[in-house]
Amino acid sequence: MSPPCNTDLGYIPPDGGWGWAVVFGASISVGFAYAFPKAFTIYYKELQAAYNISYGQIAWISSIMCATTYGGGPISSVLVSRFGSRPVVIFGGLLCGIGMVSAAFCTSIFQLYICAGLITGLGLAFNLQPSVIIIGKYFLKRRPLANGLAMAGSPVMLFILAPLNQLLFDNFGWRGSFLILGGILMNCCVAGALFRPIGAATGPTKSQKEKPAIETLEEQPETGTAELPGPGKEEEEKDRDCCENFNKYLDLSLFKHRGFLIYLVGNMLMFLGFFAPLVFLAPYAKSLEIDEYSAAFLLSILAIVDMVARPATGLIANSRWVRPKIQYFFSFSIIFNGVCHLLCPLATSYSGLAVYSGFFGLAFGMVCAMLFETLMDLVGASRFTSAVGLVTIMECCTILLGPPIGGTLIDAFGDYKYMFIKCGIVMVLAGLFLFIMNYYNYRKLAKEEKRKKHDVAPKDRQ
Amino acid sequence: MSFSQARSIPPLLLLLVALLRLSDAGTPAPTATVENTSQQTTDSISKSKELESTTFSPGPSGPSKTTEDAKQQTEAKTPDLEAVKYNITIKEFSTVVKNITLVEPTTLELSCSVDINPSLDKATIEVMWRMGNTTVKDDNVTKGEHQNIWSSQYTVHIKNRDQLGTYTCVFKTKEKSEGRFDVRVPEVGGKSKSLVSYEGDSVVMTCNSGKYVPFDWVWYTMNGSEQAVINDTLRPEKYHVSKKNLNITKLKVLNLTEKDGGVYWCEAVFLQLGESRGNASLKVLTYLVPLKPFLAIAAEVIILVAIIFIYEIYTKKKEPQAEGEKEFEQTEQLKSEDSNGVENSTTRHRKV
After folding, report:
1. pLDDT tens digits, residue range A158-186?
2. Do A194 and B327 touch (CB under 8 A)?
3. What's B219's domain CATH number?
4. Is A325 in CB contact (< 8 Å) with chain B?
5. Do B163 and B256 lie in a common domain?
6. Which of A51, A75, A292, B203 could make an S-S bridge to B197, C-beta 3.0–4.6 Å?
7. Which of A427, A374, A400, A128 is closest to A263 using CA atoms?
């Protein structure tokens, strides 16, 4: 197997050993971050009755939670650059716990927006990004597999949380459930404890690689991050002003990085049509005269296939045939997802919808498993810390827009099929864009490396 | 009994027939008048009815019901709306049930039609109408205009809860063909699971009567072993009843205490036709109840985190020397990799 790409971390990642414990912890964190907002919707009916508000007002909690989880990305990245993954995740877990416990004592819907929406969402953000970042630090050769396994935490956690939430609600009402959920979310601290810091441990080693910013990191030998500063800006340590300081923690020069931009544009386009079919699958089934339990079972089929698809995709993406061209595999899975949605209107019976759910689960899992792996592949593990923060805050807009646009289409045409067609078209376009642009990118990278090789060879002789 | 006898009192007969015509609009007026006259006229009228084969609303014949029927007559003088028609089509030798839901006094025109095999060569079929267990009408029907459809009608004015129940038409063919009309007030939906709330908090209980709007709602609670009406004007700081959309009612109980737990009934009152009940049960807990699982989970988290940290320190202490050696190896590796780093990144693309 070819040793893939950027070894600019400053050390060799272990690719195993304690890394598997880190993967386990990461899957818990990622699972909570993605599954908790979805499972939380079980309480909406009761909250609506208790506060005497409309569904639209209650749904704001979901939106705020989602927006803070994604929008808190850059803050996460900065904190991880400064302190490392472990303290941030533990703090995130505590924040989630505090948020939900205070939500249990809320007396108005605005307090709920802040406690359950803002604080908990921020805590989840402090869980999501650091978990993904630390995988890049522990794995290199088996990174796609590790990513796939970590992302598999999301469907597993949803499977556990959804019935658990219902059970808690039946026994304790919504206030008691929030209190207990606060406790459950604190398990993210356990996940965080597993994130042992790793990295080039000593100062002299780093200085050999001519990274001037290391001097500041020497004070924190435990952080294990070798943050690559903006090119050319931090050559002079004394020349630091506020902007450059900021750049050290959040690498804004990424916006000049070709691969990063390709990823950003392609993914923002994709997320316009990514979550909407998931949100509307059950209502669509009910509109076709399918009963509630069968409609809920469709989502279970989706979750089960998703659970299996993620690690499997990680395994496939790790193989030596796929890993070098992993971007093409990612584009393919997005196009596959889009085609599934385009074919969905043809399914009018329950068995047709069940088949669609199975394929949707497969495609969904494939895309999710490779979501962060492809970014790591493009920008490298050391710049990934900033990249993930910037990507999540920019994707935040399209993620939030997707379901409401779908909803407007459904209301305007009175038919669900236009929403599926729109999602399908958007995703196929996104996949094609990524495919073509990555082809171009691969070619450019190959040319650049050929050139570098020619440059290095004469240097060696000298 | 015979026409010759009837001819002896033509004016009275004409009057009665005129009243009968009025009755076709759906009031039970003739019943009352029939009862006031002699038996003869009763018989003659029933005969003329047979000839005309129109519908009339029968009442149980018998002098004991006179006062009630008189009351009915006075009440029936109010102008009535058109009768609401319900029809059941029965295939031969089977039973069909239809549910009729009423919210106010209505006149119902119930009809049963049977589809019978043409091989039957009878001229008439006997039909019996029943309410509950008592027979209310016996009829003989002839073939209708469509070859094989035989139908019978029965009109009833539902005034109060006594008339709610099951009306059955039985066609006395070889094997019975039955059609059943279940006439009742709408059911009220409550919640099957109990609501859980906490001391000092407030809770909202809802009852829904679907698409039917009752005249009023009343809430009851258990006071010891008796039912007590909840009056929100009497204790506005405790109860608040909202009936904004009349098919949904909400009871908000404020400042909950443990005593407030138990079963609550919401009763939908339908004018003159009776009531329909739904229930909701409430459990009031103290905050100590969920606090225990919370503390258990928090303790579990702290213990796990402590174990992980202790394990980490333990493994670090175990290999202080080995680490130093590893570091040295790593630096050597990195030095050699440094110069090859550029080439390493190219191999990724070459190996496609």
Report:
1. 888 888 888 888 889 889 999 999 999 99
2. no
3. 2.60.40.10
4. yes
5. no
6. B203
7. A374
Domain boundary residue, one of B259, B288, B317 = B288
- Do residue B178 and residue B104 come from a single domain? yes
Q: Please name the member of B290, B327, B348 whose beta carbon is closest to the beta carbon of A2.
A: B348
Whether residue B335 lies inside any domain: the answer is: no
Give chain B positions within 8 Å (CB) of A449. Answer: 342, 345-346, 349
In a domain? residue B103: yes
Please name the residues in contact with A451: beta carbons below 8 A apart, sequence gap of 6 or more: none
Within a domain: residue B228? Answer: yes
Mean pLDDT for A99-107 is 92
Domain count, chain B: 3
Instruction: Classify the phi-psi angles of A15: left when phi > 0, otherwise alpha if psi is within -120 to 50, otherwise beta.
Output: left
d(CA B13, CA B74): 22
Would residue B152 count as lying in a domain? yes
DSSP notation for B166-202: EEEEEE-SSS-EEEEEEEEPPPPB--SSPEEEETT--
Instruction: Assess B338–A contact: CB distance below 8 Å, yes or no.
Output: yes
Asked whether A430 and A339 are in contact (CB, 8 A), the reply is no
ipTM here: 0.79
Tell me which of B288, B316, B333 is where a domain ends: B288
- Compute φ and ψ for A406, nearest 5 degrees: -60, -45
Look at the block and give the residue holding tokens 């880190």.
A22
Residues of B in contact with A200 (CB under 8 A): 330, 334
One domain, residues B177 and B108? yes
In this predicted model, what pLDDT tens digit does every residue of A112-136 receive, in sequence order? 999 999 999 999 999 999 999 999 8
Kindly state whether B86 is in contact with chain A, defined as any CB-CB distance less than 8 angstroms.
no
Nearest to B351 among A2, A196, A209 (CB): A2
Q: Which domain holds residue B104?
A: 82-184
Cβ distance A173 to B334 less than 8 Å, yes or no, reads no
- Give the helix/strand (H/E) hosting B163: none
Give contacts of B197 with chain A, Cβ < 8 Å. Answer: 173, 175
Q: Which long-range contacts (CB under 8 A, 24 or more apart) does A406-412 make?
A: A406/A276, A406/A277, A406/A279, A406/A280, A407/A276, A407/A280, A410/A280
- CA dist A213 and A218 (Å) reads 9
Residue A72 tokens read as: 């808190």
pLDDT at A22 over 90: yes
DSSP-assigned letter for residue A13: -
- A81/A209 Cα distance (integer angstroms): 19
Give the three-state DSSP class for B101: strand
**B104 and B134 in a common domain:** yes
Q: How many CB pairs under 8 A join A and B?
A: 127
**Residues B42, B115 within the same domain:** no
Token representation of residue A422 = 């729109």
* B243: its two tokens: 């009936």
Q: What is the helix (H) or strand (E) element at residue A22, kind and residue range?
A: helix A18-40
Check: pTM over 0.80? Answer yes or no.
Answer: no
The dihedral formed by the CA atoms of B311, B313, B317 and B319, expressed in degrees to the nearest 10: 70
Whether residues B141 and B173 share a domain: the answer is yes
Query: Same domain, yes or no, for B101 and B179?
Result: yes
Q: What is the pLDDT along chain B (352 residues), one digit of tens a residue?
A: 444 444 445 555 554 444 444 444 433 333 333 333 334 433 443 343 333 333 333 334 434 334 444 434 433 444 456 778 888 777 777 788 888 888 778 888 888 888 776 656 667 778 888 888 888 888 777 766 666 777 888 888 888 778 888 888 888 777 777 888 888 888 887 777 788 888 888 888 888 887 888 888 888 887 777 777 777 777 778 888 887 767 788 888 888 888 888 888 888 888 788 888 888 888 888 888 899 999 999 999 999 999 999 999 998 888 775 656 556 665 665 565 555 444 444 444 444 4
A180 touches chain B (CB under 8 A): yes
